[in-house]
Amino acid sequence: MTPPTPPTPLRTSLVTRREELEQILQLQAANLRGHVSPEQAAREGFLTVAHTLDVLERMHALAPSVIAKEGERLAGYALVMPVEARAFVPLLEPMFQLLETLSWRGRPLREYRSYVMGQICVAGPYRGRGVFDALYREHRASYGARFDCTVTEVATRNTRSMRAHARAGFETIETYRDATDEWAVVVLGLSDGTR
Predict the structure, then answer these.
(1) What does the alpha-carbon distance between residue 52 and residue 115 come to, in Å, rounded to a whole number?
(2) Which terminus of the chain, N or C, has fewer Cβ atoms within 10 Å?
(3) What is the pLDDT of residue 143?
(4) Could you tell me if 150 and 188 are in contact, meaning their C-beta atoms sit under 8 angstroms apart?
(5) How would you write the chain as a 3-class SS string?
(6) What is the predicted pLDDT for the residue at 144?
(7) β-strands 10-14, 66-70: how paired?
């Protein structure tokens, strides 16, 4: 009798192929706020912004996003959105304008080398297995020499995401309400001098 094949270990990396961007879009679509039940959104979290393949390719050209895979199966992703990408997603322009007014650790955020972590999502079967934390470890490993920090917004009612970001080391620097939700602006130091 042949012993069972052990599971393929998860590995994190930067996106290298168009197929991986397509996998991101598939996972994103399945987890958008309008595509999950209110109960699932409260329990598992949700995504707010939908991207297109064109937008992801343009972001990728500036700085590849971070993914976690088990073999060829996408376990999760965390999008990298440098400031130069702000025009790609007009819906996020108010966030970029707000970021220009905020400070972190006593200095204006605009003085740091930073990027927006555009969105993070972990596929259902991989939740609770450390994928979220592994994605952020890869952010630090891949971008800590190029950027001081990454910043993102999390809907405060997305309690699972709020807890996970706090556990990963994100610091809340602002909370505000807009027409869609209440948001926490959170920052993570990436380089040795900002951790």
Answers:
(1) 20
(2) N
(3) 96
(4) yes
(5) CCCCCCCCCEEEEECCCHHHHHHHHHHHHHCEHHHCCHHHHHHHCCECCCCCHHHHHHHHHHCCCEEEEECCEEEEEEEEEEHHHHHHCHHHHHHHHHHCCCEECCEEHHHCCEEEEEEEEECHHHCCCCHHHHHHHHHHHHHCCCCCEEEEEEECCCHHHHHHHHHHCCEEEEEEECCCCEEEEEEEECCCCCC
(6) 95
(7) antiparallel
CA atoms within 13 A on the CB side of 154: 22
Structure confidence at residue 7 (pLDDT)? 55
Spell out, as residue ranges, where the chain has pLDDT lower than 50: 5-6
Instruction: Give the integer Cα–Cα distance in Å for 84 and 104.
Output: 20
Q: Which of 133, 124, 123 shows the shortest CA–CA distance to 168?
A: 133
**The tokens of 109 are what?**
């955020």
pLDDT value of residue 1: 60
